[in-house]
Design brief:
The chain has 175 residues and is mainly α. It has nine helices and no strands. The protein starts with 7 loop residues before the first helix and ends with a helix.
Length: 175
Amino acid sequence: MYKRFRDKQTLFRAVALGSVEHVSRDFQFQVAAVADATDVRAALRDLARSYVKAVMNPVLLRRRQLVLREAGRFPDLARRYHDSGPRRTIGALTTAFAQLAERGELQMHDPRLAATQFAFLVIGEPLDKVMFRGLGRRSRRELNAVADAGVEVFLAAYEGPNQTTRLRGSANSNS
């Protein structure tokens, strides 16, 4: 063990950061794909469902709790965890939302604020609940409902003229 890790702190950092960088990196590809989506509502719904699934992964949750518990002793670790996970995700969402705004799919003045709001609408409640109440099981259906509702609230605030026009057009053709 000590051939690979020079001391307990190095081992602790490796364990704590374990999968967060991997999960975050994989998620970045899905976020980037949203910027090119033709059906933005469906793409955001799929993204939100993937996001809540990734964040609610029990292994990742335990690592997050560990990092938060030890943030006072290892502030550099907490910063690295935040930079490689949550902050990186907000950055990717910001880029995707700015591109969607340029296309008229979303309407916003501050893509970073919109990205932060999207993230908290989707993962805020389930993450907050598990951080304070422990790793109780939540069904996929329940988590998907939270994610879907978050997307609907987000689009109610940020839906652009192109999305609105498309939705009206499809409603008229279904009549």
